[in-house]
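Q: What residues go here?
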């Protein structure tokens, strides 16, 4: 009998986690194979800021095996899986992140990654790009993983601040349609369940934001028997939620009756000063958006500086004159990565194929690109979708010659 999982040391656990994720990431394994065998990233230095999860380890190992020198820092101070980190370090991937890091250290880690003078920057949230844009050394290009990061980069691009071309991986259909919706939808619910252990069935859940992430969360919550209400600021998305069968209301109308609030808007202070007093006793608040700004945690801290933690990743605040208790999960940071393990390997296989192929594309064509934001090239997007279909054993029909010509004059 082999060594039991619970008896393994950190490195061995990290290795098992890597292998476990890798076997469920067939799209990435198939699409990287050719570039790995030809060592297409030899002499390239990559500076990477991603959540340190088992799925990320599969991407980083593929980049390393393709010849790249990889340096990593975490995209969130609380999203570091220590065994995965040990495994990557033993495999010559330089990582700037310690378990006891302060917020200041978290940002210093990004500076340390940039000090290695990477040729290509891969980021999740735009913080590493923000710092890279102040540097003078030559960067060939960059990629960005998430909606909030892309939104920030778009605004910097409008101000003419970009110094290198950036592929907005999140804008690829093969990313947001699967990762944001199915991946984050499931892992957010998983994070809430692992953190609190509560029953979801019959709970009144408010999902703030009906974007790709919100759609996924709402779908999973209703699937578990919760009563779901959506709040939105975008009329089209609100109408979509209504037609998808959800109740749609302004936040103020549900603030005093709901059991759980989940923010996923990418916006700031969605639940803040005006709401905390009205929330009902025992309500749970959590966030799935990239930054910890959607719930105004600073204000909550000022309301109850003596808040306490009844269990891991749960903070209890006593607010208002009645000192009613409300519970904040994961300090308002991404609940699916802090309370659970992040998105499953099947979806990350698709997202990280996009990252891998975009990095290869930048390494080959950066000189032909302007300092602006690009979508993942259509050819890459399509290739990933076709490989995913094939990996899942799915076959589809093709148009007949008659159908192909049907719309032609
Ligand atoms: N946790 C994860 O693993 C993960 C994965 C993907 C994306 N994200 C992050 O989740 C957030 C949402 O991503 P998305 O792809 O769904 O974005 P999106 O732009 O598709 O959706 C955001 C929605 O929120 C709505 N909104 C904005 N302000 C609002 C407000 N005050 N009240 C109610 N609704 C409001 C917008 O109208 C929009 O429909 C981003 O921060 C993104 O970076 C997290």
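A:
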């Amino acid at each position: 009998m082999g060594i039991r999982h619970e008896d393994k040391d950190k490195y061995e656990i990290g290795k098992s986690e890597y292998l476990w994720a890798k076997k469920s990431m067939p799209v990435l394994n198939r699409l990287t194979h050719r570039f790995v065998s030809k060592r297409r990233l030899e002499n390239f230095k990559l500076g990477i800021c991603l959540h340190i999860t088992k799925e990320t380890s599969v991407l980083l190992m593929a980049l390393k095996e393709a010849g790249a020198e990889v340096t990593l820092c975490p995209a969130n101070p609380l999203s570091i899986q220590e065994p995965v980190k040990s495994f990557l370090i033993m495999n010559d991937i330089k990582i700037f992140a310690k378990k006891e890091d302060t917020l200041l250290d978290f940002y210093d880690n990004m500076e340390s990654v940039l000090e290695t003078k990477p040729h290509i920057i891969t980021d999740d949230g735009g913080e590493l790009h923000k710092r890279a844009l102040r540097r003078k050394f030559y960067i060939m290009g960059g990629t960005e993983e998430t909606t909030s990061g892309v939104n920030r980069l778009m605004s910097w691009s409008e101000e003419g601040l970009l110094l290198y071309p950036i592929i907005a991986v999140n804008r690829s259909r093969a990313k947001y349609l699967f990762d944001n919706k199915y991946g984050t939808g499931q892992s957010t619910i998983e994070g809430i369940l692992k953190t609190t252990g509560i029953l979801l069935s019959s709970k009144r859940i408010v999902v703030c934001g009906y974007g790709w992430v919100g759609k996924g969360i709402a779908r999973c919550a209703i699937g578990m028997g919760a009563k779901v209400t959506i709040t939105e600021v975008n009329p089209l998305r609100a109408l979509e939620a209504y037609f998808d069968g959800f109740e749609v209301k302004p936040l103020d109308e549900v603030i005093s009756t709901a059991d759980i609030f989940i923010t996923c808007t990418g916006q700031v202070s969605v639940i803040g000063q005006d709401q905390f007093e009205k929330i009902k006793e025992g309500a749970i608040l959590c966030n799935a958006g990239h930054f910890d700004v959607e719930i105004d945690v600073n204000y909550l801290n000022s309301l109850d500086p003596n808040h306490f933690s009844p269990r891991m990743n749960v903070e209890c605040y006593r607010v208002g004159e009645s000192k009613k208790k409300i519970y904040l999960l994961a300090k308002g940071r991404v609940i699916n990565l802090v309370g659970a393990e992040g998105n499953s390997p099947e979806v990350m296989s698709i997202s990280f194929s996009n990252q891998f192929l975009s990095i290869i594309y930048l390494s080959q064509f950066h000189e032909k690109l302007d300092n602006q934001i690009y979508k993942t090239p259509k050819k890459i997007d399509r290739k990933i979708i076709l490989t995913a279909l094939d990996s899942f054993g799915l076959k589809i029909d093709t148009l007949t010659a008659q159908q192909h010509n049907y719309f032609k004059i």
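A: Context that may help when evaluating the design: The mean pLDDT is 96. Residues 146-148, 176, 180, 184, 208-214, 231-234, 237, 264-267, 270, 288-290, 334, 336, 343 surround nicotinamide-adenine-dinucleotide (CB under 6 Å).
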